[in-house]
Every structure is written in structure tokens, then in C-alpha cells.
Amino acid sequence: MVVGVLLGVAAITTTLVLPRLAAGPVRPATSPVAVRPTVSPTPTPTPTPTPTPVPAASALPSPSMPATPVALPLVQPASYQPCQGTVQPVAAGGVWVMTGSGLLVSSDSGATWSDATPTGVNLGVFGTLPIFCALDGSDAWLAWVTATDQYGEPAQVGVWRTSDGGRSWTKTATVPDPSEAIPMAIQFVDTEHGWLMMGLIGMAQSALLFATDDGGTTWTQLAGTYAGTLDFVSATQGWLAFRGAAGGGEGVYATTDGGRTWTLTSAPFLAPVGGDECPALDGFRFLSPSVAVAAISAASCGGVGEFEVWMTSDSGISWQEVSSWPASTTTSVSCGFDVISATAWVALDCNSTDSSVIAFDWTVDGGADWTTLPAMGLPDDDSYATFAFADSHDGFELPPFGPPASLNATSDSGESWQSVPVG
User: Fold this and answer.
1) pLDDT-derived band of residue 20, with 50, 70 and 90 as boundaries?
2) What is the mean pLDDT of residues 240-263?
3) pLDDT tier at 34 (50, 70, 90 boundaries)?
4) Helix (H, G, I), strand (E, B), or coil: what is residue 94?
5) What does 258-296 look like in DSSP terms, one character per residue?
6) Torsional sign, CA 78, 81, 86, 92
7) CB 337 within 8 A of CB 347
8) 165, 355, 418, 420: which has the fewest Cβ within 10 Å?
9) How far apart are CA 234 and CA 82, in angstroms?
């Protein structure tokens, strides 16, 4: 559960020559054009459990600033954990963090840390950090560029796996990269089934998608897709939320065959209302095969600072707006969103001038009531930092630049923060 602020034994190597499917994106010789996902001609609804009622949309609530500090009820996270961001809390006090100096792991909620960086991973080979997926305190995967061509573009991507909390790693695969793509997302729903999304350089809206059913040893290239937010809940069922330029394929796409084909579903909250990429998609997460939460910010849409939360209880067939409010002041904007469970969510308020976080808007009852907690103890220059909450009390902030000597941690929902050494 991650919020990005503002507006990021001997190793066994298996070399794969992956088939390039006709449906996959190719690098054009002229101007880039987004590659549309392969769409099922006749979508067949997937049977789902009895839908969870969505709160009524009338009289949408807004956050309110408490006169005295408020202790929120403790809400534990949903059982399904997405692999998103550079800070990834997992069950039983586990936390994985990708920093400028390597991958760190803690098994005691950040009290102590160990270096879990795989041997041979060059963090600086392409200027940005590797991506990883922590399924739990033991199992994790990491993917990154391992070789570049004569022009300095990606030519090969490696995938590593650990099953002992980062103490040892095996390089499970080397994925050829014929299209100069860079890893942008890796996700596993169990120890066998996972997906790797690689964004095409020079084609910001398009991506390659690969899948594995053997824990990452072999990967199969699937159809081309948009470079959006990937969220699977099982080996077959998943969604892709994409917000590109107006009229450029924005929407929520669903798959029931593990990503081989995709169907465009209803997503009224992604309808263009202003310029390119407006409104912004701040949060998107499926908590079960039927229930999901999405949040958008319209702060850049012609000066409208509205923030909206939408829910679905029928696998994305229909969505209902459950909360909506304007920016709390003329100098603040909504700048991030984290989903803890089906009822507990947190939105970040940022200073519109320097992007620093000034408050956390919390709900623990599915948006019926909101409480704004002022952020205290964060560094003045925390713009573009990464926030992640393990539950409605405990959270972490990773500074945005350089190898950090510490993280910032909170145990009171973000009201106060303390430095946690990671060295």
C-alpha cells in the first residue's frame, strides 16, 4: 500500500528467447502511437460473491480538522497485498524498502534493518531504481536492466527471486528486451503466478506485458497494453487502470485469462475533464474479485481542486462516487491516496507551492466520515517522498533523493513522525 507524493548457493541463469506475439506493441518508425490492449469481442462476466454494499452517494462527506488530537481505530490491512512502490509493508511487521543504496528489509516494523540487495544488481545502470514485489516477509522478486546497447538503451532485463527474506537470491531469468523497454511494475499473487510490465521508451502510453506461472523461471510475452496501474487478485483475474492523454484510451481494463486478453469496463471517474492526464488517478486497488476503491484528483483541471473517491462492488461493471470535496485551503491540493482496507483509506494534503505534505485525511468507515490530521515532524522538503501505511496507525516515509540514513515512521496515523535508522 503505497502513496507517491506529487505531483516514485550459486546463481542459476536461464536465458529466454520469448516469442513476440503479433498483438504485442512494436516500436514504430514514425511518431509513437499508443498500443491498444487486445479486447475480447464478447466479454463474459466472471461469477462473483454477493456484492458488498457501497455507501450511498448522497450528501458526500468532507474531512474536518479536529480541535484536539484524535486516535483512530486500528484497522488491519486487507489480506491481499499489492506490490507497488518503493516501500512495501507486509504481514507480521515486515517492511521492504528500495533506496538509492540498495534493497532493505525489516521483520520488526522498522526497528532493525538488513541489506537484501541481490549480488550483481547494478543500481545505477539506467539511472533509476529497480522494481520489486514483496509477497510476504520471505518471498520477493526484483527486476531491472542488466545490460544496455551501444546507445545506452535497455537491451536485457534480469529477474531475481528470494525465498528467505533477502538473505540469498537466485537470478531466475534473463528477459530479452528488443524494444528498448524499462521495467515499471512486477506483481505476484502467489509464489508461482506473476506479471512483469515494461514501459516502452519514447512511447509513454504503451507497455509490454509478460507472465510467469513457475515463480519467475520462465516468462511468456502477452499482448501489448497500456502503461497503467496493474492489479491482479488471482492467477486469472486482474485489472489495468490507465489515465493517458484525453481520448487516448483512458479507462479500466479487465482480464479473466491472466492478461492474455483485456476488456474495457465502465470507469466514469477517468473521463477527461481538462487537459492531458486530467483528472489524475491517485489510487486504484482491488481488495477482492468484486470490491475496489479508486481515487482521483482534479487539481490540475482548470484550477479545480476537487478530490473524489469511487467504489465498485461488482468487479468494475459499475462504479459509484462515495466521497468528494474541494482542497481544504487555497494553498493545498490532494496529492496521494492509500487504501488500507475496504473501509480504511487515507488521502494526502500537500502544499500547492512546494508539494510538502501538510495533513492526512482519514476515513475508517468507507468514506462516511473523514478526519484531517495535521502532519507534524516531517522534514520541510518532503516533496516527491514515498509514503506507505501498514495499517491505520503505522506508516513509513522514504525521502526522495539519495541513499537515506533513515526513514520516517509514524504510529499515530501520520500526526507525528520519528526518524528510524536504516544503516
Assistant:
1) very low
2) 83
3) very low
4) coil
5) TTSSBEEE--GGGS--SSTT-SEEEEEEESSSS-EEEEE
6) positive
7) yes
8) 418
9) 12
Find all residues with CB under 8 Å of 243, minimum gap 6, and list them.
Answer: 228, 250, 270, 277, 279, 280, 281
Q: Which residue has the higher pLDDT, 256 or 383?
A: 256
| Predicted pLDDT at 364 | 93
Comparing 173-177, 253-257, 389-393, the range with the smallest average pLDDT is: 173-177
Q: Would you state the cell numbers that stand for residue 380, as one nine-digit string? A: 520541510
Q: How confident is the model at residue 32 (pLDDT cuts 50, 70, 90)?
A: very low
CA distance 36 to 108: 44
DSSP string, 95-128: EEEEETTEEEEESSTTSS-EE-PPTT--TTSSSS
Residue matched to cell numbers 531469468: 173
Distance CA 291, CA 299 (A): 26
Residues in the chain: 423
Percent of the chain exceeding pLDDT 70 equals 69
H/E run at residue 195: strand 194-200
* Cell numbers standing for residue 3: 502513496
Mean pLDDT over all residues of the chain? 76
Rounded distance between C-alpha atoms, residue 302 and residue 337, angstroms? 21
Phi (first) and psi of residue 180, to 5 degrees: 50, 60
As a whole number of angstroms, the distance between CA 233 and CA 287 comes to 8
The C-alpha torsion from 45 through 51 and 57 to 63, rounded to 10°, is -120
